[in-house]
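Batch job 17 of 40 flagged for manual review because the log was empty.
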Amino acid sequence: MNATIIAVGRLREKPYRAMADEYLKRLSRYGKYRETELQDLPEPPGGSEALAEQVKQREGEAILKAIRPGDHVIALTIPGESWDSPGLARHLESLAVGGAGEIVFVIGGSLGLSDAVIARADEELSMSAMTFPHQLARVMLLEQLYRCARITAGERYHK
């Protein structure tokens, strides 16, 4: 399988970057996995909802520019579909075998994803009902993709 993670924000902290790099290295045995990091915009001062929406829209425009027409887009959202690891592995395998184009996972910034990005998504995936920092969510997603690749390859994985 080949997949891209489009993420708002860079992994600046060394522990997150090291973990992400380790999973990308492990995943290279199973396909082409890559990251596209987009600039995260500062949160507006004062907590203005209108300004926050403008930031989400601008980040959303950058995300949409990074998505190609044939991509199968999976947006990470809290209300998205929840899968266990074997179920997610079967789902991703069926997408890959079914000719779904490049699978693209989208992780928003601290304010979340714009409505336009969610509308473009082919599906939504929930990592949990809890909220995580986007840096941690990216590492968690890479770990799950690695686990899914091992399951699909018939290799042992830790439960």
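Reviewer: the log was empty due to a logging misconfiguration, but the result itself is present. The chain has a mean pLDDT of 93. Unflagging and moving on to job 18.
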